[in-house]
Structures are given as C-alpha cells and as structure tokens.
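Second attempt. The first submission of Integral membrane bound transporter domain-containing protein had a stray character pasted in from the spreadsheet, which I only caught after the job came back as garbage. Lesson logged: always re-copy from the clean sequence file. Corrected sequence (1009 aa) follows.
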Amino acid sequence: MQGMTMKSMNKIYERRFRRRLGEALRTGWACLLVSVILEYVPMVKDLMVVSVLSYVIAILVSGPTLGTVLRNALGLLAVVVPSLLSTMVVLQMFKPPISKVTAVVCTGISSFFITYLSNTHLLGRKSALAQVSILYIYAHYESDMNVWTFPLRMMGPDILGASMAIVATLLPFPQLALWEVSRSAKSAERGTSEVFSSAVTAFSAADTSSFGSMYLHSKILAKASTDIVTGLKAKQVNLGWEIGTSRLRRTLKRTAKILAGLNQHLLGMVMAMESGHHLNAPAILRSSLRGPLKQVVEVSKSLLKHGVELGTSKINHESSEEKLRRCLVVEGAKQILNMFDEKLAEARRTAFYQPHVNHGNYNGPESPSEIEGINNAAGDGGILWVDHRTKRDTSYVKHKFRGRVSSYFFLFNLKLYMSEVVNLVDSVSFSNTGTKMHQIVRSQRFEESVHSRQDAAEILSSAVSDTRENQASNHETKQVARNSSSSRRSAIIFSEDQMIEDRNLASLRWKCNQCSSFKSYNPELAEGKNSSTASNSIFGWEITCQVHRFLSKWGATRAQAKRSFKIALAIVIADIFSNMIVSKEKHAFWGPVTVAFLIGNYQGGSWRTASLRLQGTVLGGIYGYLALTVTKNHSWANFLALIPWVILTTFVRYSPDYGYGGLVSGFTAAILIMGDFESDIRKYAMDRITETFVGVLAFVFVETVVFPERAVRLIRAELVSSLTGLRDCVAAIVAVYTEKECVRCRTAAVNDIKELEKQLKVSFGRQTALRAEACLEPDLWFVPFPGEIYSNLIAIEGRMLDLLFFMVCSLYATTEDGALDHMQKLLKAQRSSLTALQEEVLTTIDFLQEALQLQVHGPSIFSRFKDWLFRRTRCVTDVENQQRSMAEQQPPPPPLHPLILLNHPRRHVDGSPMNLKSSMDQFEQSFEDTVEDLISSTKTQAGSPVICNSVMLSFGSLTFSLHSLLRETIHLERVVHELVQAENPWSVLDFWDTHSVTHLWQQQVSVRA
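This time the job returned cleanly.
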C-alpha cells in the first residue's frame, strides 16, 4: 500500500511540473503574439508611445489559469485607466512642454495618490506608476503633445499585453481555473483518504512496531496532502473571474472548504498519536474498535470520492437516479456511523466500566529494547515513547490520564472527520453553507419545540413592553442596545427556516442564571428615535463616516500615507537622477520605472527585491546584447532568440529565492531585443543597467532613511499582539465551560471565540511573512536577527493555534441541550482544576508579553538628541528647573530586566517551572479522580447512565488540548528566554555580573508579588 501511495504522490508532483512548464510555454506564446502584431500590424504600433512595454505587461499578466489572467488584466486596467485619465486634467492646466521641475512635482503627487489606496491590485499600481512617470517625462520633451490622445496612447501596451495573455491562455489549449480546481480536488480527495486510512491503521495497530511505521507514514502523507489542499485553496480564489455556471463555482468552493477542514482533523489525529501516549489506554479499547474502524475507513473513502465527484460535476441538475444513489450512500454511511457509535460505547464500557482488571492494565511496550526500537524508528519526528510504567509507580496516574485523553482526542477528530464527509454529500442544493463540524451526532436538540417557541413569544412581548416603558431613561436604552448586539448572535440556534419565519424571535436567548435579565431591543423604536433627533450636524457626521469607511475599505490609512510618501519620494529622486544627470533624453525613464516595479514589501523584502531586480536586469541585458549581436537585429531571428529565454525565465519564477530575478531578466531581454533604439546596442544596454541601478539605489535609500519599517520591530509587535489574542481566547474558552450554562449564552460565546481565532490566524500569517522579510534585512549596526529562534516561536504558535481550533470544535460539540447535563457531571468537579490550569497559562503568557515589551538598552542617540533639542529650544520656568533638579537627585529605580521576569527560582530537571509542572499534575489527578468517581457510581448504582460518547470525547478533546496548550506554553517560555538573550547579548553579560543568584531570586519573588 505504501508503494502505491508514494507512486500516486510522484504522479502529483509530475503533474505540477507539467503545469508549470505549460504556463511557461503560454507566456512565451503571448510574447510571440505581441511580436507578430507589432511587427506586421504597423497601425497598432503607431497607436502606442512605448510599445516595448507590451512584452512586460504580457509576462506579468500571464498566469496558470484563465481566472488568474483575467484577475490580473482587469485589476491592472482598473488602476491604470483612471490614473492616465487624470493626467489629462493636469496637462490641460500645464500645457506641454512643461519644465522638469513641474514634471517631477506632478510625478510625485500622482505617485502618492496612486499608491494611497493600497487595496487596489498591486500590478495595477506598479504599471500606473510607471506609465505616469513616462508620460510626464514625455510632456517635458514633446512640445506638440496632444493632451487628449497621448494618455490614451499610453494605455496601448497595457491593452495589447493583457489581451495577448488572455488569448495565449485560451488558444490553442484552454487552461481554466474550473478544470484546475476540479483536478486538484480529486488529488486532494485521494491524498486525504490515504492519510485517514494510514492514521486509523496506526491507531488500531496490534503491535508497537506496526504503530511506529504507520505513524511515520501517515505523518509524511499528511504533509503532502496539506500542500495539495493549500494549492487548492489558492486556485479557487480565481474561480469567480471565469465565465461558468454559478452552481459549479459554488460547489467547488464548498468542496475545497470541506477538504481543508478534513485535513485539519487529520492533523488532530496525527497530533494524538505523536507521543504514543494513546498506547497507555486499555488494549481492549483499540482491539474492540479495530473491526468497526475498518468499516468506517471503507465508507469514508467511497463517500468522499462520491462527494468530490458531485462537487466537481458540470451537470446543473441531478437526475432522479443520482439522487436516489446519493441518498442510499448517505443512509448507508449513517448506519455505519451509528454502528460505530454503539461499538464505541460498548468498548468504553468494557474497557473502563467492567470489573476486569486485565482489561484495564497498561499494555504498552514491555521491555527497554522494545522502547528503544520505537524511539529509533521515529527519527527526527520525536520520541514516540517515554518509558515503561506500572500501576505501582507514582506516575501511573499521569500515563493513565494521557492514554485516556489521547485516545479520546483521536476518536473525537475521527468523528468530526466523518461528520464533514457526510456533510460533503448530504446536501441536495449544494448551497454555500457552513460546515457542520460541531454536529457530531445528528439530532434535533437544536430545534425548538412548540412549547418553547410560545414561551419565546411571551418573552418577546413582555420585553417589548418593558422597552417602551423605559424609553425615558437614556442609560437603560444604551444598556439594551449593548445587550441586543450580543443577543442577535444567538440566532444561530434556530434553523434557517425558523429564522426566516420568526425573525423577531431570533434575537432572544434562553432564560438562565446568566441572561435572565436580558431585555429585548426594538430596532424600529431606536431608529424612530434617532430619526426624530437627526440634524444637519449628524448628517455631516454620517457623510464623514461614510468617507472614512470607504477609505478604510480601500486601505487608505495613516500608515499607508507614510508608505505612499516614501514611494513618491523614491520615484522623484530616481526621476531627477536618471533624467537630469545620467541621461537627458526622453527615453531615460527606466529609473522611476524601476522604483514603480519594486514596491510592495517591507524593508527586508525591498532589499532582496532590489538586489534581484538589479541581478535580473544585468542578466537580461547581457543576454539581449548577445542575442542582437548574433541575430544582427533581424526580426524573425529576434523572435527565435527571445521566446526560449522567456520560457526559461517564466519557469524560474516559481523559485522562492530567484523567482523575481528570473522574471525581471525575462522582460529586460524582451525590452532590449524588441525595443526601438537609435544608438548603439551596447550603449543602450549600459544605459538600461545604469538607470536600473539609479532606481534601485533611490528606493533602498528612501526605505532605509525615511520612516524605516524594519521587519524585526514589526514581527515583535505582531508577536506581542498574538499573545494577547491567545490569552483572551484561552480565557474565553475556559469561561464558557466553567460559567456558561445556557445554550444561547454558550453559542454566542463560541461564535465570538471563533472570530477571535480567525484574527489570530491572520496575525500568524503576518508573522510568517515578516519573519521571511526580517531574515533578508541587512544587519548594519543592529544585533543580527535571530531567525532560527523566531522560526521556533512561529512553529509553537502554529501548534497553539491548532489546539485552539480543536478547543473550539469541542465547544461546538457541547452546545447541545441534551449534552449539558452530562457535561455538568464532568465540570462540577473539574471547575477548580480547570481554572487553576487556566491561570497558569494566562500568567505565563502575561509575563512573556511583559518580557518582550521591555527595552533592555538605554535611550538611543536619536532620543537623547531629541531631548537635548527640546531642552535647548523650550523656555523652562524656575519651577520646572527645580522639579527636574529634585528628580535628578533622587536615586533612579533599579532597571527591570526581562530575564528577571522569565527567571523561575525553582525549575524541573527538564527546565520547566515547578509551578507549571505542579498545576499539570494536579489537573491530571483531578481529571482521573472525576472520571473514576463517575465510573464507580455507575457500577454501584443500578440503572445509572453512562456518559454519552459525544460528551466524553469532546471533554477529552478539551482536556487534551488544554493540557497540550500548557505544554506548548512551557516551550514558548523557553524560546522567549532564548530570544531575550540572543537580542541583547551584552546586556545579558552585564545582567549576570550585577545580579547575584540570591538577589535575583529575591527580586523575582517581589516581581511575582
């Protein structure tokens, strides 16, 4: 099976190579079409000012699919056309020929406004900056310029290049995003099925050696499957730009979304088996589930294949036979899932509730040699087994706890996986609905009864009457408005039909201890009150708010204003040097054009992009010079020399290190080979390289000196912000379990947590990009960037985000009316331990935030100069002088070093703080005591119900996630400790010289207090 799987994966990578080669050939085909039109249709060339830019646009617009090309082409024209049309007004005010100063000023102002709306297409902004710079340079040299037609002629290269890129994607072999997404979805389906099969086989392995090999196999497959799904998500973005049936686009997006969720649950299964602790669970639990799990795997494969086939089908309507077949497949899958649920309950009862000691004993590896063999098989993947424990050892509870929660966590993700697979097929309309990962057992617990709906109607009428009586009180009205915003979130508890039928009832909660004081809010009354008190000032304020929202929507912020000023300044400097100093000809516009195509990154990326731009220009210039020397500037020979070079450089564009350099070398060679130059080719090539160097130098100078945005500082701020969000998310999750008893309250809180989790994922993505930027920044006079440590930090944050996702899933699984009774039995005895564990996590994260925000070094030379200038220029009174002198006479407070916050006087042998280890041990003991008490009460009391599978699995998943989150917090504390020392090496030496161990411990105790 492994050989067949690896063969399938090799085919996937072969298809990826052929796909990239096809894109390179289509890019070369687009350049050939541009060459033919410019060579044999002179009228088209006469309508353009700089026809050679058509090759640049054709190369930049080209993409893997038609949707990508259309998105690039339309985004380009959406920015270029308004920018060039606005120059008509400027040229009407300043009749050509304009002075060089006027041209430079107009270029700078236009560049600022073009880049101020940062949410526009990046390629469009680059092209618009280049075109506007060229236009104003020509406006200085050409006195007979037609101010109406010249900007329109500047659009010619954009239109021709984009059009030929579209034609090359359609002819002779169309390349549609619909087809690419369909093929990728089928590849993802095969990879996902193989990962699920190998993970289940590893979990239910009969011996430890089989488990070790299958676990490593599933881990490798999971990584490959994740890469396929990531590519699928990237391709589906371009679906909306193609002409096709809306149903097919909708179903493809839904299929891609569910496949991504399936791989997330597969990641949870792999995490459950990573340490091998599930082998500590009773062997009867796995042996009893081995047969049902095989049936589940077979059903999931057929169901997933059928669902992907339906999702990628081009047929708009299902036939009656297909509907019947789908219903039969879904019903069969539900029967298998019900059977598995029964077998799981029976296995749990046999393993934990039956008084058979042999079934409950630890059944892990029995000899040190066997343990060593398992660990050696893991390689770099981590230790699969720690050591052997027996029931008489003091750590027996720890291993029993880990075995139980690891098994429950695996089974929890397995049931979520199967629920998603059923959801993929069990939808007649294939509407773009959300996934059903929280509905482990399909039931009617979320549906209201007639009696409860009547109660809700009575509550609504009483709440409305209370609101009318209390309209005179502004304070109560504001409080009601605040409550209404949170109450509307609780509408998720209603089904879709009920929300349409009873729209007013959707804003109510159930009455409980937490929300019994809720009062309804009537938006019509509030709207009437607001309309009666409206005035002209309010109307003006509304207009201001609308303008602000519009600018914010398009990315026009204060930070972007600084960024736009820097870009405009760089273009002005490049324009001055390239057109006034290097060359005084009208074609000397490549300096500002170089700056235009360099924008879009922070300083680190700018350094790297500038370097690659210069390298690509030199390489493309040399190739173009050699090609023209050989071909003697013959048209067809130039075509034959250009097309292979464009194909090669387009294929290189996928390289993460040299992609941009290859792209630049491609269109630089096209500019030289196909350009109209009047002087010697050698001089033209040298001028091109020189002007590119001027543009690169201007851009790097401005990025370094004016409002420098070092990625090192940005990633530090992003790290602190993500820790704050992580702390809030953990606190909210534990609060839902320990405080929220109402279904409506829990559902509303879970939705808020889900939104916070999405924000954390966005922050995590920014940190990953900033880390790559920071590694490329030159160190100069700064401390070298500790890239490896930040990589470890980002990896830990990624695992913590995955654990938060599973905690949210467990919250979804428990927001059911019938599940709360069972959940309260577990939470009643666990609230104190959960709260204690939460406090340890939050306290540790707080100290990490404080340590990261502390400045170890003293004030910089710039801040000292600013303070000196402030004292010299400001009129200081005698009172202020007296206060300053008194402050200087007082002894300064001792500096608080980050290592003081991070230092723990008592640590475990593995480096973990003893208080965290103690909290983990207490939590494990409390969990086992609670579960054992429930098991004992079930054994002694006849007819006492066993806790249902959904509650036990979800609570086990929460316990596993919270326990693992604390372990990751310990790892995070160590890495932050390393980061503080790496970023402040000399400060660390001074710190240990000035702080004795005894003084350090005393100061640590005072800080903790």
